[in-house]
Amino acid sequence: MVRVATAQYPVDFLEGWNHYVDKISAWVKEAASEGAQIAVFPEYASMELVSLFAEEVRQDLSFQMSEMQRLLDDYLALHRELARQYGVYVIGGSYPVRLLDGSYRNRAYVFSPQGRVDFQEKILMTRFESELWLISYGDQLKVFETPFGAFGINICYDSEFPLLARRQVEAGANLIIAPSCTDTPYGYNRVKIGCQARALENQCYVAHAVLVGDAPWSIAIEENCGRAAVYTPVDVGFSEDGIEAIGEWNAPCWVYANVDLARSEEVRVRGEVLNFRDWSNQAVAANAEIERVNLGTP
């Protein structure tokens, strides 16, 4: 059993670096005080750091992406220390990281209580990211092993494509973590539906974190909405609607759920349906030639 905290994390205009330290520290402390062993922050939560820069930086997306690199080491050190201090696996708010070739990747960093730091890069970019932010596609999927079981990360848009989570689940993940940043209910619901579909077809858990609140000073994360949640297989022994826990719309908070990852293995063998097992049965029809049937015209 593992207790997961997934954030409805509010964007703030920061008064200084210490304001950010105090804010993140308070959030991790609260999650740990409620017994959380995994704490998930949403996609692009790190972008509130742009509020520390001058107006000309805040109004230039390329400039702010470049300036963000100056804060990366401090960001990593802070989250690493908080994971160690509170004994929690922390998935930090994703960060646009510049590579040696000058390109950017959207990375969700994972911090372990033992001091280990790794990351999952976003694989698929939305139009906004690829056309305006010029963020490059990631090219590697990872599965993170913990004493509680293994998890994979699908960052926002990635959760809307079934083959990514499928690869991670086949590699041993029984929990998919989906940090997201969506500016409209349409975007939020696309990710929500994707998360529930991944839980259904893989008979696994999915933890969805969201960014909330308005940031009129930002041209990147000016509007944010959603509800954090933990989704489950839809089968006997789980919630009838596949929702283990879900927050109130746009309210800053942690959403908590106790997750028994071993139950994913059990439901894949004894469930009313066996979605995970039957995945490969799609292949025959999916690869067959399509027959077009003319039913006539009026």
Automatic annotation (TrEMBL):
The keyword Coiled coil applies. This is Amidohydrolase. The keyword Coiled coil applies. Signal peptide: none annotated. Residues 2-261 form the CN hydrolase domain. Pfam families: CN_hydrolase (PF00795). Keywords: Coiled coil. It comes from the Bacteria. InterPro entries: C-N_Hydrolase, C-N_Hydrolase_sf. Residues 54-85 form a coiled coil.
